[in-house]
Amino acid sequence: MVGEMPDTDRLVIIGRISSLYGVRGWLKVYSYTKPRRRILDYGPWLVPGAGGLAVEVEDGREHGKGIAVKLKGYDDRDAAARLLGKDIAVRRTRLDAPAPGEYYWADLEGLRVVTRDGRDLGRIDHLLETGANDVVVVRGDRERLIPFVQGQVIRRIDLEAGLMEVDWDPDF
Asked: Where are the alpha helices (DSSP H) in 40-124?
């Protein structure tokens, strides 16, 4: 990734099919988008765990902490059950450009992480959402959990260079 812009044609996971909802093919979906209802705006959905199957949302609405959806061609409980537990993805090009200073997690994964004095800590494996702030999981000589607090801990992000600079003690 060094020296390249993020791969805008790759798949980005935006949710997960979590359970059946009723007997007419409806499903409950856990959305990773903010706001969670935004998942309904992206399509077609690609289901990598089902061989890259493309599905269209016929209808959808918020339901509790998730989203209830009816997918075209899935008209009964048995058909819908084949999608349980599968991730929902879209092509990166389907997502809006983030606002200045904001990033999609998918664009941060894989960046090399260095301290302000240039010590290499490893690469971003993934991020975690916590109550206080998000956490960057960096894998290098060992795993480090670094709070994603821009300006204090996260000093600079350069997607083109594939680099995140942090104000972080390497021994921590």
From this structure: 77-81, 105-108
